[in-house]
Amino acid sequence: MGTIWELDFYSRPLRDEEGKKVWEVLICQTPLEISDRAESLFRYTQFCPNTEVNSIWLQGAIQEAIEKASEPPQRIRFFRRPMANMILKACKELSIPAAASRRTYALFQWLQERMDQFYPNLPNYQETSSPSVQFSPSPPQRLPDALQGDKWAFVSLEASAFKDMSEWDIGFGEAFGLPMVGLSEETLIPGLIVYSSRATPLAAWMSGLELAYLRLDKSDRPSLLLETGENDSWILANLTDAATQGEAEQFEEAKRNAKNVHFLAVQSDPNSESFAGLWMLQELNF
Q1: Virtual CA dihedral for 132, 136, 142, 148, nearest 10 degrees?
Q2: What whole-number distance in Å separates Cα of residue 82 and Cα of residue 89?
Q3: Which pLDDT band holds residue 147 (cuts at 50, 70, 90)?
């Protein structure tokens, strides 16, 4: 999969000597192993003068981060839509693929820590409300007909069970460091397993998406949705009766109890000891 970076470039609750907003770029390496601690992976930060907020400055900052890192990123994720054009242009000049994603788990946590603990201790701090990031929802789409699952099941595993995830037989997938989330080993992590006779093509197709999280859609036609990319969503399962809707409600409750951490797995059948795909997920409130 190679090294993945997460990037945010935006103003902070700080003011310069002229009373203007101070901008900052944050770059961190995506944790890809279940044992990874985000703070032990590569991080880079640099403040940007208000007069130099442009793709040229950002390109230089990314280049400096590359020179300081042990290895360059294969791609970059970002979550802040208003900065998309600037970020994409800077990354294009460096020949680094970049994409809007809601899978910026390590960056989200780091930014929250800085908002709570770092910026307020600086002399030029000025308390302001943190702007939310709006992801315009798009109508849920059906999975391609050839990739429809045969059946599915809600399951749960204790957090400790994922310690050996790196040794599991997994075709496609992505993990992240559970230590950075702060879950106890006894915490039950809920998940959904999709069983399909075309498990490998389904998992391969999913691997091409920026998988974000699963959520219950309580509309007139209840369903379980897979949120991906900037604002895409896919119907994984139609909840056609009270029993399945109740299971989905329990899944959502278990998510909340696990700090919104959950997982999605794809297998050929319930007796399989391998996974065509397995992704750790977390729903973030940007």
Answers
A1: -20
A2: 13
A3: confident
Pairing relationship of beta strands 170-174 and 151-158 according to DSSP bridges: unpaired
Predicted TM-score (pTM) of the model is 0.90
DSSP secondary structure code for residue 27 in this structure:
E
| Total residues found in the chain within this entry | 286
Q: Residues 80-131: pLDDT tens digits?
A: 989 999 999 999 999 999 999 999 999 999 999 999 999 999 999 988 766 5
| Bridge-based pairing state of the strands 211-217 and 21-29 | unpaired
DSSP one-letter code for 129: P
Hey, which residues does 11 pair with through a beta bridge? 23
Strand partners, 232: 228
For 12-53, how does the pLDDT look when each residue is reduced to its tens digit (9 = 90+)?
999 998 989 999 999 999 988 887 777 888 999 999 999 999
Decide if 173 contacts 199 (C-beta within 8 A). no
Tell me the one-letter amino acid at 250.
Answer: Q
Distance CA(244)–CA(247), nearest Å, equals: 5
Q: For the CA atoms of 147, 150, 151, 155, what is the dihedral angle to 10 degrees?
A: -60
CB-hemisphere CA count at 13 Å for 186? Answer: 0
Q: Of 88, 85, 94, 108, give the one whose Cα is nearest residue 65.
A: 94
Angle between helices 55-68 and 84-93 (to 10 degrees): 50
Q: Which residues of 261-282 are buried (b: 16+ CB within 10 A; e: fewer)?
A: bbbbbbbbeeeeeebbbbbbbb
Segment (H or E) for 105: helix 105-113
Long-range CB pairs of 221-226 (<8 Å, 24+ gap) are 222/248, 223/140, 224/192, 224/248, 224/251, 225/140, 226/264
Of the candidates 208, 160, 156, the one whose C-alpha atom is nearest the C-alpha of residue 186 is 160
- Residue type, position 66, single letter: I
